[in-house]
């Protein structure tokens, strides 16, 4: 075998090269130095054709995306497909204007030119990476290519095909010869070797991590075959993406974001009580991986340095499910020392300590997605998130302070959530208002997720393929396959009703946050100025003048001490000369004024410093430093009590 093709079809994000294609190309190139790997990031061409803005809107909405090529794959189903398209397009004027038939005709033209002008016969294999939004487009390409080149070996893989979803696939899409389950490097390289050694697919011996159409039984459980370590993985090869981008008119070129990976899998696997699952209850990302592996810091730093130098790009998005806790500080400290003005994005857990966030910020992290998901500890427990509301508020505050945009989600309608979860969320939302608003998302059921595996534990009566698939695919496909997006029966109406007030409050939060940040001085909503032995807190308010509060002496000291969450026990131990019945009323007053948050006798100050933390030497930062650096004095406390100056609330 001399040449193979790897293809990524619409609707991958157009502004990033496909990490799946880039990594596979680099790995296969290393394994087979004589093999030519053509990586077709074809989605970019479609984006250029229909316009980047329209492409982006479609690529961000699964159902919208799946309808376009569905209309080409199954024209006889146009009426049903159009209903899904119109429903999904209704909220967006840009898509509403581009009707489905016109859009489908546009993408058909550009797709067919690509398919017809490529000599697929020259390749020994064509591999398709299929992630969310790429299902119908991939099948369209495969069908069209296989019609012209029936002997071409077709392999598919990616997050849309893992475990259960591969069952019956060959029956409904006989054009597919092999499916890769999990990561592709090892299975695909073995397949390439075997295809060169054997005459027919029937002769190929079983390959771990590959399901073959010619395998005797479709019922054998699908296995993984993944690399033990990522340290031998070469840096992704994105040359094909940039070559394609260079062919565009100058007014259609742009600066892309480089996709990078530090790790694979997820290290958050704490088992949920007596239930038989671990990890977050709604998450099925781990269908593709076994365990967690991460690259060593030097490998990551040199990869990012080389890729950004080669492509002259500074924007990098880490595609990891979540970053490694131990190595992250070294990685970001190393990136920070490269003297490059990066713009980085990553997904992190809410338990990420502030010192790592600081290293991330110094390295150029402008945006993070944190696994917040809920602001109710009761609900977080049901989600098996392993975090609490106070932890979530703490990291939201740190992001606000460090100027890192936190684009995280609040999950509504989680099955099994109840009025008490909603009430707790509504209460805690009051304390989140000074921070960047969360986006509410409605829970969706993922194939293979813990909720899907044990639906009754979450009050779900039945699970089945999402009905939109029934509109898109013919009945025999719909009934044979298990799709990644599932639907369910059980208390859906109730969930919608009870979460309505939260939805309203989040919308008001968005509005208020935007309003309070209007104007040339984008000062924080809740901030403090430190006067060394007193502190002034400024609280901006919607439709009113800001209110200010002054904390003097020990009040100031306690407030600064709780810049990270502290238990009452810890506060008492730190301010040991002061009685509990004097500290607690102060903390309560701070909570009443929404200047602090309290949960389970833990306290968190919510105001952020107007000056970066590092410029305030008296601020308590780490263990061992606290006692010496903190000016605590009973005299000050007494004086303040006498003068009633603990906290002066003023509508200024
Ligand atoms: S949501 Fe994130 S932290 Fe939770 S199991 Fe999935 S990948 Fe892991």
Average pLDDT metric: 91
Distance between the termini: 77 Å
Range of strand content: 15-25%
Name the helicity range: 40-55%
Q: Could you say what the CATH architecture of the largest domain is?
A: Alpha-Beta Barrel
Task: Find the CATH topology of the largest domain.
Answer: TIM Barrel
Strand order of the largest sheet: 2-1-3-4-5-6
Count of alpha/pi helices: 26
Low-confidence sequence ranges: 614-652
Structural class: alpha/beta
CATH superfamily of the largest domain: Aldolase class I
How many strand elements? 26
Biggest beta sheet summary: 6 strands, mixed
Topology:
Layout: E1 3-8, H1 19-31, E2 36-41, H2 43-50, H3 52-59, H4 62-73, H5 78-89, H6 93-97, H7 100-117, E3 125-129, H8 135-148, E4 153-157, H9 169-172, E5 178-180, H10 185-197, E6 210-212, H11 239-246, E7 258-260, E8 263-265, E9 292-294, H12 297-311, E10 315-318, H13 325-336, E11 343-348, H14 354-363, E12 365-370, H15 377-382, H16 389-402, E13 405-406, E14 409-412, H17 419-432, E15 439-442, E16 445-446, H18 450-453, E17 462-465, H19 467-472, H20 475-480, E18 485-489, H21 492-516, E19 526-530, E20 534-541, E21 544-552, H22 554-561, E22 566-567, H23 568-574, H24 580-592, E23 596-599, E24 602-605, E25 608-609, H25 626-629, H26 634-643, E26 650-651
Parallel strand pairs: 1-2, 1-3, 3-4, 4-5, 7-10, 10-11, 11-12, 12-13, 14-15, 19-25
Antiparallel strand pairs: 5-6, 8-9, 16-18, 17-18, 19-20, 20-21, 21-26, 22-24, 23-24
């Amino acid at each position: 075998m001399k040449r193979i093709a790897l293809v990524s079809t619409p609707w991958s994000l157009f502004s990033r090269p496909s990490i799946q294609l880039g990594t596979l190309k680099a790995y296969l190139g290393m394994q087979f130095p004589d093999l030519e790997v053509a990586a077709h990031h074809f989605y970019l061409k479609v984006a250029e054709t229909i316009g980047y803005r329209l492409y982006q809107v479609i690529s961000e909405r699964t159902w919208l995306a799946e309808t376009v090529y569905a209309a080409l794959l199954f024209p006889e189903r146009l009426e049903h497909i159009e209903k899904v398209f119109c429903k999904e397009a209704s909220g967006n004027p840009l898509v509403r204007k581009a009707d489905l038939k016109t859009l489908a005709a546009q993408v058909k033209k550009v797709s067919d030119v690509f398919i017809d002008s490529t000599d697929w016969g020259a390749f020994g294999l064509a591999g398709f990476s299929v992630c969310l939004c790429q299902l119908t487009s991939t099948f369209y390409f495969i069908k069209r290519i296989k019609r012209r080149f029936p002997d071409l070996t077709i392999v598919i893989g990616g997050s849309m095909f893992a475990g259960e979803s591969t069952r019956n696939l060959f029956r409904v899409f006989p054009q597919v010869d092999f499916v890769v389950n999990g990561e592709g490097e090892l299975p695909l390289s073995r397949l390439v070797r075997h295809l060169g050694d054997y005459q027919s697919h029937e002769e190929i011996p079983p390959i771990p991590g590959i399901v073959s159409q010619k395998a005797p039984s479709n019922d054998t459980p699908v296995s993984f075959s993944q690399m033990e370590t990522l340290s031998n993985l070469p840096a992704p090869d994105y040359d094909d993406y940039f070559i394609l981008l260079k062919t565009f008119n100058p007014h259609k070129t742009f600066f892309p974001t480089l996709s990078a990976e530090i790790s694979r899998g997820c290290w958050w696997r704490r088992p949920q009580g007596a239930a038989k699952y671990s990890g977050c209850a709604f998450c099925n990302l781990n269908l593709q991986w076994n365990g967690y592996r991460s690259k060593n810091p030097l490998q990551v730093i040199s990869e990012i340095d080389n890729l950004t130098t080669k492509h002259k790009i500074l924007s990098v998005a880490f595609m990891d499910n979540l970053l490694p806790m131990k190595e992250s500080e070294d990685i970001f400290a190393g990136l920070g020392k490269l003297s490059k003005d990066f713009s980085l994005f990553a997904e992190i857990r809410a338990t990420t300590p502030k010192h790592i966030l600081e290293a991330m910020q110094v390295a150029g992290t402008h945006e993070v997605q944190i696994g917040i998901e809920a602001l109710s500890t009761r609900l977080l427990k049901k989600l098996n998130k392993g975090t609490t509301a106070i932890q979530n508020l703490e990291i939201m505050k740190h992001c606000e302070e460090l100027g890192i945009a936190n684009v995280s989600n609040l999950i509504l309608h989680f099955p099994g959530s109840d009025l008490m979860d909603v009430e707790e969320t509504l209460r805690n939302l009051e304390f989140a208002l000074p921070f960047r608003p969360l986006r509410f998302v409605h829970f969706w059921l993922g194939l293979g997720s813990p909720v899907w595996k044990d639906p009754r534990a979450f009050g779900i009566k039945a699970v089945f393929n999402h009905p939109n698939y029934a509109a898109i695919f013919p009945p025999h496909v719909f009934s044979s396959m298990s799709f990644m997006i599932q639907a369910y029966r059980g208390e859906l109406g109730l969930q919608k009703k009870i979460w309505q007030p939260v939805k309203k409050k989040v919308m008001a939060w968005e509005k208020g946050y935007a309003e309070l940040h209007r104007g040339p001085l984008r000062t924080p909503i809740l901030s403090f100025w430190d006067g060394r032995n007193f502190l002034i807190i400024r609280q901006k308010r919607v439709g009113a003048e800001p209110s200010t509060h002054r904390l003097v002496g020990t009040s100031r000291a306690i407030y600064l001490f709780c810049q990270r969450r502290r238990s009452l026990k810890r506060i008492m131990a730190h301010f040991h000369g002061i009685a509990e019945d004097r500290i607690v009323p102060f903390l309560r007053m701070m909570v009443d004024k929404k200047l602090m948050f309290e949960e389970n006798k833990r306290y968190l100050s919510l105001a952020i410093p107007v000056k970066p933390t590092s410029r305030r030497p008296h601020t308590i930062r780490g263990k061992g430093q606290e006692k010496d650096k903190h000016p605590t004095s009973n005299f000050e406390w007494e004086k303040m009590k006498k003068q009633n100056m603990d906290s002066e609330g003023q509508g200024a």
